Amino acid sequence: MSDAAVCAGAEEVLERYAATVFAAAYAMVKNKEDAEDIAQEVFISYVKAKPAFESAEHEKAWLLRVTINRCKSFFRSAWQRKTTGLEDDFPDTPFTPDETAVVEAVNRLPKKYRQVIYLYYIEGYATGEIAAILEMPQNTVLSQLARARKLLKTALKGEFDDV
């Protein structure tokens, strides 16, 4: 495959999955700039690896797996361990007050719960697919989803009693 064809294919992949990769990274690192950096690294990895995929779903799963791995590396880095970031919100995100409460509650979850919540509810993956992406047993995914739901229920208790 020529370099021009690789670049054209990479541009198409970037257009198709940029928002998904960024959202996954942001869900993990909770900082817009760090999420942008991670997304950029993911697409650079894509161009360097020139992977072949069985389907669009396989390609998306690969990109999410690389995104999650980059986020894990981000948290292991010496820089991240020795610095404290500023709180970062999406000021332009048009959430209703109820949605904002849910987003904030999800963002307060430990990262292992945020990632399964994101993959299950936002990306629409089944628990078996999440297990494959995160390279963990399906029962672990099920346990983490149950614990995350319980934590969210506790965090949101009383906020929607009038609904």
Automatic annotation (TrEMBL):
Domain of life where this protein originates: Bacteria
GO molecular function, one term: DNA binding
CDD domains on file: Sigma70_r4
Domain RNA polymerase sigma-70 region: 15-79
InterPro entries the UniProt entry points to: RNA_pol_sigma-70-like, RNA_pol_sigma-70_dom, RNA_pol_sigma70_r2, RNA_pol_sigma70_r4_t2, RNA_pol_sigma_r2, RNA_pol_sigma_r3/r4-like, WH-like_DNA-bd_sf
Keywords: Sigma factor, Transcription, Transcription regulation
One annotated GO biological process: DNA-templated transcription initiation
A Pfam family assignment: Sigma70_r2
Stretches assigned to the RNA polymerase sigma factor 70 region 4 type domain: 101-152
Signal sequence range: none
Stored NCBIfam families: sigma70-ECF
Family from the record: Belongs to the sigma-70 factor family. ECF subfamily.
Protein name according to UniProt: Sigma-70 family RNA polymerase sigma factor
Protein source organism: Ruthenibacterium lactatiformans
